[in-house]
């Protein structure tokens, strides 16, 4: 429901100026609102408990890995979730928005396998988190500064490619540190922190975008990116065993050598 004669143009309209004309009739929707609040609180409590258990169970040398998973959630997409609304506010029609976003998604889909192979072969897996993270922040800044079609389309291509590199790089780092035996447990901890980061980042982005505009959303993504890079640098490079990080055990490697 929107105000009469006023079409929704952005996040602020969707969230609404609830003190004015009103986005929701609170009397008629009170049971539904109460249920949503209960579900949100339950999810928050479960997630908080999961994160607390993960911190308690993880050895201290793995805390930087957990921090990377938490902060990379918002850095990975930049202002991506808000791009469509942002461009619509600046006069773009839905066809152009869909075309620009589709180009980015296609590029990400085509390059994912190649990126995975590159990360497998490299011994500089930390760089595959740092460089794509910086790329996502720069691409988000391009969208804020330039509204031309090709600038936005290329920024979406860069964001998709960079976002496709971050997750396999972090997975490779995790596998190289804890090896195959400890991977399932550590990956579960990583996912708990990643989901917590997604929730915190989404809530903070929504609030900042509503109160201060899209520039604040970009600054939040840049801040998360800087913290992610700092956490990656806290992981000692010599703690990553690149043979297990490629999914190979010492036994399988010795068998291959004998077969050769």
Helix percentage range: over 70%
Tell me what portion of residues adopts beta-strand conformation.
under 5%
How far is the N terminus from the C terminus?
69 Å
Overall pLDDT metric: 75
Q: Would you identify the regions where 5 or more consecutive residues have pLDDT less than 50? A: 1-29, 252-260
Structural class call reads mainly alpha
> What order do the helices and strands follow?
HHHHHHHHHH
Per the principal axes of the C-alpha atoms, what is the gross shape? globular
Major sheet size, sense and barrel closure: none
Number of strands: 0
Rg is 21 Å
Q: Count helical runs.
A: 10
What do you see in this structure?
The structure is a single chain. The protein is mainly α and 260 residues long. 77% of the residues lie in helices and 0% in strands. The protein has helices at 11-15, 30-57, 63-77, 83-89, 94-121, 127-145, 149-212, 214-233, 242-245, 250-259. Helix 5 (94-121) crosses helix 7 (149-212). The longest helix is centred in the last third of the chain and has 64 residues, at 149-212. Residues 1-29 and 252-260 have low confidence and may be disordered.
């Amino acid at each position: 429901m929107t105000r009469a004669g006023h079409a929704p143009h952005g996040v602020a309209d969707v969230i609404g100026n609830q003190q004015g004309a009103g986005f929701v009739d609170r009397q008629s929707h009170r049971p539904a609102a109460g249920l949503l609040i209960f579900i949100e609180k339950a999810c928050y409590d479960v997630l908080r408990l999961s994160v607390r258990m993960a911190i308690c169970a993880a050895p201290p040398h793995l805390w930087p890995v957990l921090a990377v998973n938490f902060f990379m959630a918002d850095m990975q997409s930049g202002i991506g979730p808000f791009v469509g609304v942002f461009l619509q506010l600046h006069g773009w029609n839905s066809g152009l928005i869909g075309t620009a976003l589709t180009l980015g998604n296609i590029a990400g889909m085509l390059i994912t396998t190649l990126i995975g192979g590159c990360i497998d072969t490299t011994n500089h897996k930390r760089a595959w988190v740092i460089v794509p993270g910086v790329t996502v922040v720069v691409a988000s800044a391009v969208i804020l500064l330039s509204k031309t079609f090709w600038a936005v389309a290329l920024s979406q291509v860069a964001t998709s490619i960079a976002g496709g590199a971050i997750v396999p790089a972090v997975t490779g780092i995790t596998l190289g540190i804890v090896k195959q035996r400890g991977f399932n447990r550590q990956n579960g901890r990583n996912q708990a922190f990643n989901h917590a980061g997604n929730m915190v980042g989404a809530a903070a982005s929504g609030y900042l975008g509503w109160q201060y505009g899209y520039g604040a959303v970009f600054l939040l993504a840049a801040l998360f990116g800087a913290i992610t890079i700092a956490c990656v640098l806290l992981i000692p490079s010599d703690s990553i065993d690149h043979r297990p990080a490629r999914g190979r055990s010492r036994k399988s490697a010795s068998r291959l050598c004998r077969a050769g």
